[in-house]
Design goal:
By secondary structure, the chain is an all-alpha fold. The protein contains 18 helices and two strands.
Length: 378
């Protein structure tokens, strides 16, 4: 036990099995998206994973808790659905990188945090939890055996942890079972060396389409889940005060550096933070370990076939429990009705519509409260 742990304060970095287990807790969110993008577009999976690994390590060092690095979900879903090419992805990533960097540098997130009610942010958390459950459902139906095996393992570890001091290694066990099943069915994957990095600059001709198709749908998630909700959850889970503007700056920096060299647009996220916490990561070491794993996969085993051979039920089990952790924190809202409505709108429509609906309801509630206050004072 370290001095920090004995005094009740968690050290900035802790090397343990819990950190190793928690380091891969968010892989169930990251891998399905980047794999889907790699399968339908002309991006390079090795280069994508390389930059995820690098930034995982750097954010662990910067924030000293496992602040996640994950693909921008709205962009990923649209790229997968429409098979967009890398030129459009580069343009969108650079545009949103400039946007988030500027808004962070000039204190824009602090301005929005002071004006967006907490229950709207909780609504985004609940919406994301429901979207993750929706995302997990096809994986479960496609692979019932490994999905329920994984969920069962996670439940056993949770129950054991409440009765005895047993570290939550469930994510590590589930991933190892998935890798074992993949090796059994397809054999040990051959080494697949990463291609050299190349610089790709955005084209002005792709700006209108990239802005409309990718940037605009992603911005509400960046402003809420990737920054405001992540900062709020960092305080909930880790008692760590992180300024949302600081998160916006790292998001902008990550994208401006990585996307032109082969990376996919990336951000932070409350779901990923909940995943690392759920599976045991408590310090920046969780990110460092996860980053090393991703870099290793990028350099030698980043063929889509290698990752695709892991049973989909493995990803489903991880997604289900990430969603549960996120929903638990979303229910700390001070307006259950608005939060619940936002969650329903998110899963039935989109996170963008849910965010706008939450703002509209907050505005209506503010008007009604102001009028009733004025009436009471006359």
């Amino acid at each position: 036990m370290t001095e920090g742990e004995s005094s009740g304060k968690m050290p900035a970095f802790r090397l343990s099995l819990e950190e190793a287990a928690g380091s891969i807790g968010n892989f169930g969110t990251v891998l399905p998206i980047v794999l889907g993008v790699a399968l339908v577009s002309d991006v390079n999976l090795g280069q994508i994973l390389l930059f995820f690994g690098i930034w995982y390590i750097l954010t662990g060092v910067i924030y000293q808790i496992p602040v996640p690095v994950e693909p921008m979900k709205a962009m990923g879903a649209i790229v997968i659905a429409e098979g967009l090419l890398y030129n459009e992805i580069v343009t969108a990533g650079m545009l949103i990188g400039v946007f988030t960097l500027l808004i962070g540098v000039f204190g824009g997130m602090r301005f929005m945090r002071d004006r967006i009610p907490e229950y709207v942010i909780r609504g985004i958390q609940l919406g994301l939890a429901l979207v993750l459950l929706k995302t997990a459902t096809p994986f479960i139906l496609k692979d019932l055996f490994f999905a329920f095996l994984g969920i069962g393992i996670i439940v056993i570890f949770l129950l054991a942890g409440t009765r005895r001091q047993i570290p939550n290694l469930s994510a590590l066990v589930v991933i190892l079972i998935g890798i074992g099943a993949a090796v059994t069915s397809t054999g040990v994957p051959e080494a697949h060396m990463i291609e050299p990095l190349r610089l790709t600059l955005p084209s002005l001709s792709t700006v209108p389409a990239a802005t409309w198709q990718l940037v605009i749908p992603q911005i509400p998630l960046v402003l809420t889940n990737a920054t405001l909700a992540t900062a709020l959850l960092a305080h909930d889970l880790y008692k760590k005060n992180i300024e949302p503007d600081r998160l916006a700056i790292t998001i902008g920096t990550m994208n401006l550096i990585s996307v032109p060299l082969g990376g996919f647009p990336m951000c932070h996220g409350a779901g990923g933070l909940a995943a690392h916490y759920r599976f045991g990561a408590r310090t920046g070491m969780g990110n460092v370990i996860g980053g090393i794993i991703l870099i290793g996969a990028a350099l030698f085993f980043a063929s889509p076939a290698a990752i695709q051979s892991i049973p989909p039920g493995v990803f489903a089990a991880l997604l289900v429990f990430v969603a549960i952790e996120l929903a638990k924190n979303a229910l700390k809202t001070d307006s259950m009705v608005i939060t619940a409505i936002m969650g329903a709108v998110a899963v039935l429509s989109s996170m963008t519509i849910a965010f706008l609906a939450g703002l509209a309801m907050a505005w209506i509630l503010h008007i009604r409260t102001s009028r009733s206050g004025n009436t009471g004072s006359t």
